[in-house]
């Protein structure tokens, strides 16, 4: 059928308009493909890795050697000891493990399993320090050969401390060496580290049994291990974002396509009527016009899938290195490619069909006569507008007449605002977390966690150091835990403030962090029911105050009261906050870190987020530009005749632009103003959903700077699109309009 | 008789008001002749054009074309009727902007069981040299000639023209009328021209005069002149 050529020709003639819609569809398909394909790749490889290389179900640390056989018989779990030691040299911390055989087996990507005198390095550390296989590395003055890269199933998200937010491979790495070398290098190991695999029916009894026999120092279930759950949380988060993000873009594009289709049909009304009068049937005409959505869908989604698929590879690699996951298998998820292809089709064809269906309700005579006149009768005649001067009145009437279009524009801006604010806030929040937590609240420079709770008569504390005690509890009814600290009453190391920046005195009453209070829905005066992680003992404490700490599930009270409530003697403690570096024996220390090191780590890692933010800003700006451009161009195309006549009457271009498209300014502003608080709500709910059952909490703060930056980027996109539309308007010549009407 | 209309009526309802666009109009047309329909605005000319062309339906009355009752046809049959019997020429040409001149004519020929040669028709209409151009690249006169070519190429029994010279200058109008006359002579096509221009009725075999929806006069024209001689 010859008339099937019409759609392509029209699309060629109105190239920019259709190209913009195609790009919107391509972005939607690309977003879906990009995330879905890379997520599937990571997911499949992650599951394979933790299964084949036997990820632990938990680990614990004791101060004495346990009886593995007894525990296996009594609790039916597989246990494996890993020798473990931490070395700090030249600002770099190396966590050294012996190589396991049964649980947390390393996957060796390049090189080979180390023999004596050889080590495996974690991939991020290996890359960050530009090591090569067979290079040498010096640990405690002994040279080792790097035999390759090793991935550990329990160190997927390689952070040094449980409370760290981002990995820092420049200053922290995991090293694997033979048991033999471990024993030679560290003749005295202060603690015993065990991984376990197997389902424990009564985990509380298991913990208390270990504690009573071998003195349990730390017990971490897989579900509480940030090095494991952060990966799952972030993957889940990315997955959760994928579909709504793509769906939204598809919906906006489909709606725009609906408007464009209606306009095309309106301008071609007489041609369609003529096709009927020539003897073409409704089916023939329908088939021809459904080619518009068909071409848009095919071009947009195939382009999007290709872009997304090729971009998915680097994204997978980025995730792989971010989470330090090995690639065990190549994954090609056809089902997601099918979805990326089919999803836009559903919406695009529906919108195309609806646009046509309404038109086909008209009689042939109405088609030939044109529907403009029919619609004209329905133009709003609102007396309210008459109080304004002519140009403003016309602008308001145009806005009112094209209300749905203005709404789409505003929704597009809301979406772009949310997208960009999300990136900006992620960075801001981390910066705020550092500044507030580590600079305002935590005044110490060094933190030491010792091997045991005792009065430690061997340690002489100066006035530059303060003892503290800490205990981890499960929160009853929730899969959450809280770390409660006992600190000095007049502590100079920890300062807590309420939301009005008033200092909260440390007393015998419990003060909890705001993220935890938000997560549990607790207010001051509420009660919190907790249970010791190591024993079955339960406690109910009243929340006295909520401290404005941006990160962490933590609580604070004075040391004396802490010891009294939790059954320690008055002077006992497990850790030290200090303003200066302490020279403590290695045998005493379980963990230590310096605040400046931690702050620098986070700040450096937050800097890496800039790239993500740049991409998000670019996508947000392109989306805003495309949406504003397509909708404004539509108005210009529809009103060519009016523009020509107004020009003929002597109106300046600026005035005509204001009358036809001035309302867009309000829609843009409304979109942005609604978008800012909405982005905060969206991010909070996203963060809550992602961290619902895990021990991580963080306040997301929207800063004035990020609001201004978002506005600047989106406004720039808005101005560019308006400039392009104005150029189009300038090309409308009155004489052509007249020529079109009568020869 | 090629066309026979019996008591055709068409009523438009706008709100509570009824407008009788055609009121019991009856007439007969012979095959191979030229007819004009004249009358003031609102007299029912275009309504008659639409009903005769199978674009609209009459409320009452019947029309027979070549012995078939088109008023009793369903949409599909009406479609076939338009395809096989009628060619249309509109005041504002209604060419398909997305198709070239050649394709516009071919799109019509493709529907016909017995089409004429497209090139021959384009030559006849003197637009062959423009065959690869798009409608918006042509003058109004050229566009109308393409529109006539599109109507003619199907080799229909009847061509209905709604104000075919309404948007054209004098010279172009005369050329269009000449071409319609040529088509009538060469292919024996019945031609019905709706017009405001009384001068055009001088080239017709008969004229139907409508007023307020009624056929007030059906006058044969024994002193018919050629299209060349028509002037106003």
TrEMBL record, chain B:
Q: Which GO terms describe its cellular component?
A: membrane protein complex
Q: Which SUPFAM superfamilies match?
A: P-loop containing nucleoside triphosphate hydrolases
**Can you tell me which residues the record assigns to a coiled coil?**
none
Keywords for this entry?
A: ATP-binding, Nucleotide-binding, Transport
Q: Which InterPro entries match?
A: AAA+_ATPase (IPR003593), ABC_transporter-like_ATP-bd (IPR003439), ABC_transporter-like_CS (IPR017871), MacB-like_ATP-bd (IPR017911), P-loop_NTPase (IPR027417)
Which parts of the sequence belong to the ABC transporter domain?
3-232
Q: What is the superkingdom listed in this entry's lineage?
A: Bacteria
Task: Give GO terms: molecular function aspect only.
Answer: ATP binding; ATP hydrolysis activity; transmembrane transporter activity
Return the similarity comment.
Belongs to the ABC transporter superfamily.
Q: Entry's PANTHER family?
A: ABC TRANSPORTER ATP-BINDING PROTEIN MG467-RELATED (PTHR42798:SF2), LIPOPROTEIN-RELEASING SYSTEM ATP-BINDING PROTEIN LOLD (PTHR42798)
Instruction: Quote the protein name from its UniProt record.
Output: ABC-type antimicrobial peptide transport system, ATPase component
Give the originating organism.
Thermoanaerobacter thermohydrosulfuricus WC1
Biological classification of the source: Bacteria, Bacillati, Bacillota, Clostridia, Thermoanaerobacterales
